[in-house]
Write a structure and sequence with these properties.
This protein has 10 helices and 14 strands. It is of the alpha/beta class.
């Protein structure tokens, strides 16, 4: 199905803060946001959009609509190392002659992008252990080779974006909060006087859960702890990585907690008296059969819940392949 691609667009959110809406090639996720914040003679750019043919021109188009240019960027800050938030960091920093700051736990992206064959092999092994049949694995491997990385060039941060680091802007200083879960490198930025939160993909207007599986001990548990951290900030306005800015930040935190609890409950429910593979469990969690388009996402999310429950002593993995899980 061909779809009319969106164009980059810029709009003012507040005096000195602009939303840059950048097109994405993904079904169901038509665009992502970057944020320009006035800072002295230029702007701080939070997130970059993903790299693909013509993507830098889309960013320039969005900037132009709010009378900004790439050369105005004094600093690039990435909320996390996913391609749609970090993929264009290299060409932007090159053009603007500026630094890029990001959290140091970026190996989930930098290592995969540095060796895509090894990353694919690891994903296939996880899928095999989850009970994905051999033929489906081969089809996935074929398709995966076609999917572009969305990353112009792997760049590591000039400065580690960790708590204590402050991003200075004309709207005041922004504090860094570590919010792993969606990705190990995820941080949120908070401007306390104005109670503004730049949430990346940790909180989205439309609740959508995604975890990077396999890099940290308990992504779902980390995500829940990150929700607590953000909830405590009592932000007034949330500027998320996709979709429009929204108020009622606490309501969105609650919505995420509820959905996680519901899915964790569904994983437990599916193990009622049976030993099952992740492939058998996932359709019960989502109420739908796995399809090539959703299987990778849903399986890694299901594995994160199994891991979360295993650490709590609620489920146990049996020996053997594929891996079967039982209630403990
Ligand atoms: Zn992301
Ligand atoms: Zn994103």
């Amino acid at each position: 199905m061909t779809r009319q691609r969106e164009l980059g667009r810029g709009e003012k959110v507040l005096p000195g803060l602009w939303r840059l809406r950048l097109p994405l090639p993904w079904p169901g996720v038509p665009h992502g946001n970057a944020w320009a914040i006035a800072a002295g003679s230029g702007v701080v750019l939070v997130d970059t959009g993903m790299h693909e043919a013509g993507s830098l021109a889309q960013l320039e188009r969005a900037l132009d609509q709010v009378n900004l240019r790439l050369e105005h960027v004094r600093l690039v800050v990435c909320t996390h190392a996913h391609s749609d938030h970090w993929g264009q960091a290299a060409p932007i920093c090159e053009r603007a002659g500026c630094e890029m700051w990001m959290h140091p736990n970026h190996q989930h992206a930098t290592r995969s992008a540095g060796d895509p064959a090894a990353a694919l092999a690891r994903r296939l092994e996880v899928a095999r252990q989850s009970g994905v049949p051999e033929q489906a694995l081969q089809q996935y491997a074929e398709r995966a080779k076609e999917i572009p990385s969305g990353i112009a060039r792997v760049v590591e941060p000039d400065r580690d974006l960790v708590p204590g680091v402050v991003v200075e802007t004309d709207l005041g200083p922004w504090e860094v909060y570590e919010t792993p879960g969606h990705a190990p490198s995820h941080i949120c930025l908070f401007q306390p006087e104005r109670r503004l939160l730049i949430s990346g993909d940790h909180l989205l207007g439309r609740i959508s859960l995604f975890y990077d599986y396999g890099w940290t001990p308990d992504p779902a548990g980390e995500f829940l702890r990150s929700l607590d951290i953000v909830d405590e900030l009592d932000a007034r306005l949330c500027l998320a990585g996709h979709g429009r800015p929204f108020f009622d930040v606490h309501g969105h935190v609650e919505g995420n907690r509820k959905l996680v609890a519901q899915r964790v409950g569904a994983v437990l429910g599916s193990l009622d008296g049976h030993a099952r593979t992740a492939v058998e469990i996932a359709p019960e969690v989502y109420g739908e059969a796995l399809r090539p388009g959703n299987a990778a996402w849903w399986l890694s999310e299901t594995l994160c819940y199994l891991r979360h429950l295993e650490l709590k002593g609620r489920v146990r993995a049996q020996d053997g392949e594929p891996k079967r899980w039982t209630a403990a």
